[in-house]
Description:
This protein is α+β, with helices and mostly antiparallel strands.
Amino acid sequence: MIHELSLDARLGLDKYEIDEEQSHIHIEHALCPACELKPCLTVCPAAVYVMADGVVVARYENCVECGTCQIACDTGGNGAITWNPPRGGFGIVYRYG
Ligand code: SF4
Ligand code: SF4
């Protein structure tokens, strides 16, 4: 019998080296209020972007480095996201490919 893992369970298999000093995601917050669709809140597979007190924030420590948010914000949002790879030695470590 094959048991399918939930997304949370699969993400839990990966390891993160969290950069406590510096986020690899920058949001130009002034551009967000006029962004009607706010695709960042729905496209991220790791639910990094959330609303907190009316402001979009990035919980960058959960990022799985797929790059989707940059494309979504540039094409369906207001271009507020600047995403760079985490500094060397930091970020996600995939255990299975
Ligand atoms: S998609 Fe970009 S511009 Fe729109 S709310 Fe998210 S970060 Fe802001
Ligand atoms: S790169 Fe992927 S996982 Fe990381 S914040 Fe963007 S959409 Fe989410």
